[in-house]
Amino acid sequence: MERPSPDSPAPITGPPTRRKAGPSRLPVFGVLAILLPLLFLPLAAVFVFAGRSGWSGFFSALSQPDALFALRFSLLMGFATAAVNSVIGTFIAYVLSKYRFPGRDALGILVNLPVALPTVVVGTSLLLLWGPIGLLGKYLDPLGIQPMFSATGILLAHVLVTLPYMLGAVRPVLDTLEVTYEEAAYTIGASRWQTFWLVILPALRGGIFTGTLLSFAHSLGEFGATVMVSGNLRLRTQTAPLYVFAQFEAGNIEAANAVAAVLAIISFLLFLFLQRFARRPERPEA
Amino acid sequence: MSIVLSDVTKRFGDSLVVSRVSLEVRDGELFVLLGSSGSGKSTLLRMVAGLLLPDSGRIELHGRDVTYLPPQQRGTGLVFQNYSVFRHMTVAQNIEFGLRIRRTPALRRKARREELLDLVGLSGMGSRYPDQLSGGQQQRVALARALAYEPAVLLLDEPFGALDVQTRSQMREALKDIQRRLGVTAVLVTHDQDEAFELADRIGVIDHGHLLEVGAPDDLYFHPQSEFVAGFLGGGNVLAGRAEGRFIRLGSVALPIPEAATEQEEGAPVRIVFRPEFVVVKAGASAPKDGVHSLGRGRVVRRTFAGALERVRLEVQGLQGARPVTPPLEYGQRGTPIEATRPASASEREPLKAEDDVWVGIRSFHVLAPSGLKVLIHVDGSAVADEGAMLGLLLGQAAGGPTTLLAVAEESQQVEEWQRRLEEILKRVGAARSPWLQSRVRIGKTVPEVLAEAQEGFYEIVVVGGPARGDRRNALREELSSRLLAQAQAAVLRVKRARPQLKRLLVCTAGGEPGKRDVVMGGRVARRAGAVVTLFHVDREPVSPEEDVRVKRHLEQGAAMLSALGVQAEIRSARGPVIEKILDESAAGDYDLIVLGAPTGPGSGRYGEIDHMAPVLREADRPILIVP
Amino acid sequence: MLNSAGPRRPPILRRIHVDWRGLSARGSFLLFALALGIFTAWPWLTPSAMAPPRTLIVYGFSILAEALEDGVFPAFRDEWQSRTGQQVEFVSSFSGSGTITNQVVLGVPAEVAILSLELDAFRLEDAGVLAGPTWRDLPHGGVLNRTPFIILVRPGNPDHVTDFGDLTPPGIGIVHPDPLTSGGAQWAVLAEYGSVLFLGGDTTQAEDQLSGIWRNVVAQASSARGARTQFEGGFGDVLITYEQEAVYDLGRGRLDAEIVYPRSTILSEHIVVVPEKNIPLQDLPLVRAFTDFLWTERAQQIFVEYGFRSVNAELNSGHAEFGVIEVPFTVADLGGWKTARADIIQAIWKDRVLTALRP
Q1: Which chain A residue shows the shortest CA-CA distance from B46?
Q2: Does the beta-carbon distance from A133 to C92 stay under 8 Å?
Q3: What is the distance in angstroms between the CA of the first residue and the CA of the last residue of chain C?
Q4: Given CA atoms A217, A219, A221, A225 in this order, what sign does their dihedral have?
């Protein structure tokens, strides 16, 4: 499960290449000793607690309508965030990478700002803009338009928070894609649109895939911004992490852990796939 | 004609990247644009492809004006140095890309693809991805891709630059072969002269955006028209001498002017070029052989082993008065440097080492087209500018270089009036228009237009009227002068009153270090005009003995260099207020021209601000040449 | 990580192996994505014949969760269905009373909110969410139920705590909810302070007791429920909380602790508010029916079952689990919430006790 703390978009690197064992294995044990309480044991604890009341307890905890809803809702938000991000993220990355205009660098930093901002602040800022008492929201509210405390608000928050991950995955690919690729297509006779569709987009496939997966994964685990903008309504706007938190605070540790375990498994699988596909180098040296 | 470029010009911001290039590329020809990096060759190619728009000029492909057409509508095939093969497509898909865009039926596409795979030697590799190919193979794919849709012309931008040496020579052969077989017109850009010689039907040499010479490879190699081409292609020795009857006087040596060379005016500067492999070096004092022109005795400065050849740098003593152009004369050096190469067999038979005394001759040489200082004269309608025109034309005549009279009209209806005015000036000095003497009227704002002309035309000296009392154009002329110095790197000649002749030059090294460029420029003017130079140095206050020695040594080196150029020079120095001393000296010596160095470095060009320039300019009524 | 065995295989096998891997990775990813997609879309893929139920959005403060979710909501659902034949779906959210109040102020679409103290209702009124003190128009002035504040100690009462006064000596670790976000915590502060006054002490003694207790606070949770979870997790020696919490969980055998009844303590009063501006016109009767239902004997009985003391005193009698409090008092006895807040929570707890605690 994700903590609501901000973290930077992790560069996707392959697993370290296996090396022949050095003269001493002590450092390896040192690393294990550090990671055991830091990473492995907490994760294990989730599963131990989830499985404490047996499979039946685990499944009955999961089959609660609000637990099922929270998981579904989170996945839906994840799919929607990933879909929206793959389009606007790619577009923003393309413009930032290929167009020269004043303030481009500043803009490039600005769009990455959500990574550095605490997600709670992102949520608050959205609330203060779109909420019923917010800067824009107060004009929308009388019209019956209420973007906050609904799926729209959560989508907005998730897109904002995960956008840097999308950009971080796509922009480096675009930056290394030399302008001659486009120029070659132009001279061959391809229009701007054909060039984008047939030449640039396919070259970005890997980056877009990675970015989409990252967006999905982060959306699935997003807590800080979601808790501000969702309204936390069971069966309405409660995402899985919010459910986990609410159940945990209410003392229903089994219910919390069951959903937390499912989230952990999905995230783990996503991560595994990310590693698997990102490992294929984009362009091996000829 | 496949490609016709007329007066194509391109600027990036302030810098002129392609300057008035006119070129015709014939059908089926493989034309190579040769130039060093930053020469503008790639920019020119990209303009033909339509990836850049020219600022002015016209581009035609097969008789169709494509100047402002987007790349998609030009039908050129472009091959890049980095291949730019689409990585997510197979080789076959890459090659078919252009046909797919053109909605060619699948069957014809397939047939064409197979044909091209065969042509570039990649049969059976259609289903591979670029990542599975070597660099050379990828470039073959790029070539096939560019040829698939039968392009109007094939453009190649340093196509083999990223390949290793062996692959490169294979690819050259393959390219030449394919281009011949298809008969497609091709333009290839490269900085590699071997590549140019090997591939080209014709070569165009480009430098600083100027297309200098166009010709067949051997023609350019043996008979270059300009110093740059002579030096750039294969490296060469260029010596400048003077025409004397049917001979060229190079110090104590006189060489017969070849039959093929153009008529040379008596006493005019003549430059000859000879390739290092035409230099004959003999150890000891053996007599000149038949058919070898003797250059006299010299010594070996150094020898370098270079595989099949041996490079020998010589210094020949008897050529004083002849100016070596390449290899450049090192500052303070008296002998004339000559570059020679000998086959390995010769060096085995007759080994040479540094400091050996040798006899030097040349088997044959070629006379370059005359070129002197290029002078641009700006006429603005004022009396001082007219005086400037008088002196400028005198200088141009003496310098034997192309001279242009320029006026700038604010609006197009004033053009004729300005043309009449320029005509009058030419008539007044009795000069007739010739390829070496032109007049031109540009339309626009004075300063940027003159600046543009100076840059485009490669002028070395621009004549601008001096400050005149109560003339509203004073400020404009000041601005023009400082921007010419800073941006066009041209020397500026400020004239208040013309002189009847150019016989005595005062080169001032006051106010700091004696510059090198001012001495050289003064020397060039003096040599062409046959003038005497006084190197003049002023110390503001007493200096330390070491400093004194240093300045003296520098002045002596300058004088030595001037005399190596064949210019008579004397050294004078004074102590006291710099401006007064300069003014005193210029009046006392009755000089015709004062040469001053402009400060260099950041913020330079504001020459009016340095301490001695402005007052001298204001007070002296002599013409002043300011050297950047 | 995945194909570490790869490099040592013979070339042909390795090739096959790698291809299979690539296929499998891609295939299993697609399978995985498809599975997630189907799971997500399942409710939409299986259209139910039922008419879409009417919904009621209820925000409640933390300890109400079970009583409402498991007791009151199903009861009302049944009654409404038998009365009208319509399905009612409850959409609910439970957290600290202050949090709920903030959310409602910021615009969450609550149709009914149950707050742990009237003060939060005043805040909703000030923010314009409520047109006025509309909860006063409800039965019992909007008070849904009550519960006294008690002390929860570890089994066997190892620290021998018998009253609030025993919590002041150093060395006792108290878990307390945070008065900034939790209504329960504010009640607790009033109990800690007021109990002295109602047992004949003066304001100085009362303040001494309050600051003595707060010196021992080792953990603050954002809600009463959160504080209990911390205490349950083994943190601290003592928890000051609602009687309801303790009674309900002890009844189910979930809590391993003992209740200590102070001689004097406050009875909290929980307020129902109806932010009418959030209610679509056609839902108004439904909301009315629900709020009326909350004070019926059936609903009040359910609250008693879940450990609350009913506003209907008859219902509380005969329940042995409700311990005896010698001198109970309510916020009205302290001059009402506005006075109590200004004079005790603000002026004494926040400005004096808390500042004195700061290092």
Answers
A1: A183
A2: no
A3: 52
A4: positive
CB C63 within 8 A of CB C245: yes
Task: Report which of C233, C84, C54, C248 is spatially closest to residue C150, judged by C-alpha positions.
Answer: C248
| pLDDT score at C8 | 43
A131·C107 Cβ contact <8 A: yes
Identify the pLDDT of residue B433: 59
Contact B438, B375 (CB under 8 A): no
Judge: B101–A190 Cβ closer than 8 Å, yes or no: yes
Q: Output b/e per residue, A13-33; b: 16+ Cβ within 10 A.
A: eeeeeeeeeeeeeeeeeeeee
Q: How far is B17 from chain A (nearest CA, A)?
A: 20
Average pLDDT over residues A30-51: 82
Prior bond to A65 cis, omega within 30?
A: no
Question: What 8-state DSSP symbol labels residue A199?
Answer: I
What values do phi and psi take at C314, rounded to 5? Answer: -55, -40
Q: Which band of pLDDT confidence, cut at 50, 70 and 90, is reported for residue C129?
A: confident
Intra-chain end-to-end CA distance of chain A, in Å: 41
Close Cβ partners of B398 (under 8 Å, ≥ 6 residues apart): B502, B525, B528, B529, B530
* Rounded distance between C-alpha atoms, residue B465 and residue C59, angstroms: 89
Q: Best interface-test mutation with C: which of A233, A248, A266 has the largest number of C CBs within 10 A?
A: A233
Amino acid code (one letter) for C120: D
Residues of chain A found within 8 Å of residue B51, distances taken between Cβ atoms: 183, 186-187
> What would the DSSP string read from start to end of B566-582?
T--EEEEEEES-HHHHH
Q: What angle do CA A279, A282, A286 make, to 5 degrees?
A: 115
ipTM of the complex: 0.73
| Angle at C237 (CA atoms; ends C325, C67), nearest 5 degrees | 55
CA B140 to chain centre: 35
Token readout for B338 is: 């000559």
Helices (H) and strands (E) in chain B, counts: 17, 31
pTM of the model: 0.66
Q: For the segment B259-289, what is each residue's pLDDT rounded down to a tens digit?
A: 766 666 565 667 888 888 888 888 766 656 6
pLDDT at C9: 41
Please enumerate in sequence order all residues whose Cβ is within 8 A of that of B369, keeping only pairs 6 or more positions apart, or say none.
Answer: B225, B226, B262
Q: What's CA B13's distance to the chain center, in Å?
A: 21
What's the mean per-residue pLDDT of chain C?
85
Q: Say if A286 is an interface residue toward chain B (CB within 8 Å).
A: yes
Cα torsion for C309, C314, C316, C320, to the nearest 10°? 160
Over residues B307-346, the pLDDT tens digits come to 888 888 888 887 766 666 667 666 556 678 888 988 888 8
From first CA to last CA, the distance across chain B in angstroms is 43
Which among A80, A77, A67, A60 is positioned nearest to A235, based on CA atoms? A67
Cβ separation A251–C228 shorter than 8 A: yes
Tally the residues of chain A: 286
Task: Report the distance separating Cα B492 and Cα B377, nearest Å.
Answer: 10
Interface touch A148/C107, C-beta < 8 Å: yes
Q: List chain B residues with pLDDT less than 70.
A: 260-269, 284-289, 320-326, 328-334, 370-372, 400, 430-436, 457, 510-516, 598-614
pLDDT at B354: 82
Helix (H, G, I), strand (E, B) or coil at C328: strand
- Percentages of chain B per state (helix, strand, coil), in multiples of 5: 35, 30, 35
Q: Residue-wise over C251-277: b if at least 16 C-beta within 10 A, else e? A: eeeebebebbbbbbbbbbbbbbbbbee
d(CA C258, CA C237): 11
Mutate to test the interface with A, among B42, B83, B84, B94 (most CBs of A within 10 A): B84
